[in-house]
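Objective 1b: paired records.
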Amino acid sequence: MAAIPGKHVYYLALQPTPEAAEAALQRLEAVRREHRLTGKPVAAARLHVSLYNLGHFKRPPGPIMDKAVDVVRRVEAAPFTVALNRLGSWGRGEGERPVVLWGEEGVIGVQALYDALHHELVRAGMASRRDPPFEPHMTLAYDRADLPETFVDPVEWPVEEFVLIHAVHGEGKFQVVERFPLEG
């Protein structure tokens, strides 16, 4: 689906440490020439692992986002370490596809946090009871070339918080509007 200019998107995400972001981009650079990747890498400051999409809006929402923030604050989760050790293209067909990092056991904490978020949002009537499919990953670039699944040295970082991001598609705006510390 093409981005609509001015479209306000709010989602919960994990942000890597600056060192982990740099390591992720180094993993991409290491395979770039061999697989003829030409897509521009995502800026290190914008790298993230999406947790939960809270919605797409024509204009910034008011009370509904306030309610979502109040619900999300109720989530209880302990800090954990995330580790992403696979790199490859996702999707099929022509055109640009995401080149992503993902993991196996290294994303158990991410999955548990997602489950806790989904549970609270369902309880508040803000999400469907049906658990949407979720595979934790970090998009590093978009490219037409096909990068087969490649195991890489893990990109790891300690997760001590998650964030609420407001992105405005078509305008290049990306802002952290709230931080939620993990305690436990």
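Objective 1b, second protein:
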Amino acid sequence: MTAYELDMYPSEAKIVYAEKHEKLWIEFVEEGVERAGYPELKEIPGLSKAEFAEKVRSLD
């Protein structure tokens, strides 16, 4: 529990932890595409979540 700041207002906590959550997911996906052998997916600008998911589904 020491890793969490528990003395924040709920609205502040939502912002802080949403940003941390987003950062962790970005790192997870970037590592995933690297391990899968498709690092070029990281370089496609403006790719929406749906477009990214479709590209991942169509990989052979």
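Residues 10-36 form the longest helix (27 residues). The mean pLDDT is 84.
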